[in-house]
Write a structure and sequence with these properties.
There is one protein chain. With 70 residues, the protein is mainly beta. 10% of the residues lie in helices and 29% in strands. The chain is built from one helix and four strands, in the order βαβββ. The protein has a four-stranded antiparallel β-sheet with strand order 1-2-3-4, with no helix packed on it. The relative contact order is 0.17.
Length: 70
């Protein structure tokens, strides 16, 4: 991002654009031989806890009701 002159992205800090995906830590994707490949190629939507787009929460999984909060 810095090389392209994009000062508002590519980092997690105040006023920077950020897209983040929070994945449930209790899913066994971390115990696989290649966790990154597992996340990319064996993806399951039920693993998502929260998505944040441009600094705003767009989706949150509600563990109490076992349903998404949109």
């Amino acid at each position: 991002a810095d090389a392209l002159g994009w000062r508002d992205c590519g980092r997690i800090e105040p006023d920077a654009s950020a897209d983040l995906l929070v994945v449930r830590p209790d899913i066994p994707w971390l115990q696989t031989k290649d966790p990154l490949s597992t996340l990319m190629f064996a993806w399951d939507d039920r693993w998502i806890r929260e998505t944040i787009l441009r600094g705003r929460v767009r989706y949150t999984f509600d563990a109490r009701t076992d349903a998404p909060k949109l």
